[in-house]
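Usage

Read records sequentially. Each one opens with the input sequence:
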Amino acid sequence: MRIGKLGAVESRVGQAFSDRFEVCGLDPSAGAVQFMPTLRSLPDNIAIDCATGESVLEAARRAHLPITHACGGKAKCSTCRIWILDGVEACPVQGELERDLTGRLHLTEDIRLACQLRPTGDIVFRRLVLDETDLLIANQLQRGANTKSGELKSVVLFFSDVAGFTRFSETLTPYDVMYLLNRYFAQVGELIERNDGYIDKFVGDGLMAIFGVDGQPDAPIRAVNAALQTLAAVDRMKPFFASMYGIEFDIRIGLHLGDAVIGSIGSPGNERLTAIGDTVNVASRVEAANKEAGTRLLVSEALYNRVKDDVEMTDFVRVRLPGTTDRITLYEIVKLQPEAERALNAVVVRDTVRLGGKTWHKAIRLDSLVEGEPTVLGFPSLYAVVLRKGEKIFAFNNACPHLKLPFFEAAAAGTTPPASRIDDEGTIRCRWHESCFDLASGEIVSWCEALNDDGVSQQMPMLGDISKNRAPLKLIPWREEAGQIWLALD
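and closes with the structure output:
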């Protein structure tokens, strides 16, 4: 029998082996037993035997090896992730549950979930979640779908800043500075998202965005399109800023294509997707080179070679990027070729669009809404109610915050009690226990008036006090465009 070298653990692991033989119906003193793969764990330097068909997590728990498993081994949290250092050939292909989670996190093939891996031969692995801090970082329970653990990708980095920002920020009031920047960023952010870009961060007057986060093959030309549209939007803003503040407002943009590590970074609960690596630094320096070259948009040679057939280039410059000794060639792009312009900027009918940091789902045409009549719409994540009362539109989750029972049926069902009521003041009264909510703010107007004072339902007293779970109504952001109502469900 093979166990680790750590004496303090040796007898405990050995006893665990004997216990396992008994569980499996085997005699540990028998001369011939079924082959059992050896699992060696690092950094513990402990080896344990694994029964045929047993998962790494099951074997580890039997041997009291501390492998974290926040979800209980259901392939939901990824905290049991291990790095296969040797014996990859003894690891069967991933099953559906493991593949779904590791695919969403973009884990490499040598990172496996101990709860799902059932090795057929000897392996050496390293535990990747070692303490409470690692657990907070790795745990995917209730984590956003955009969380990524880190992967190398070819992406386009978009950097921009405002020309002469320091000068005019010193002459304007703080309010005007923030108003000016927010008005500019609101329009630029929409253009970036319309071109499938991801806004990484805003730093002062600077913006960083990433194109190709999800491996889009047209990310290079879309990044150029977003840059050109941004410059056009700024040109439209210039007269307004000149008349309001007497300033000449302009920006500079730099684009670079290269490999970067894409992953979520930040303290648990405050993670944000970002790019890390020299590609980021080069992109920032390309943007800075505009000042010396007297240009507004420069792209690196790597990016230009990918888009040169679809753009019009007016000039190129040889510059030494700030902070480096190398001279490189940068290209000034002024517009797209007509065919590329038509293909990229054609009106495309989509069921979802990304705008303002939200994913908007096409819901219903405005003229389909009947005045004062709630319309229930089904989506994969929830049922939404859309209501038009006069000039106002209300949208909210069809589940009452009290017991998550529906305010309205998705179709006529002859239910009892009747449908919830909405008064002329914009207050909804839930049909189940008569909680009332303000449709404009979601605030609680009154809570569970149909229950007894002790919180017990007259119809179902066996349930006891059900007056808890006090929470406001979940409102759903909505927008109207070209007669279509869109809902932000994330």
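Summary fields computed downstream for this record:
- The radius of gyration is 30 Å.
- The first strand starts at residue 38 and ends at 42.
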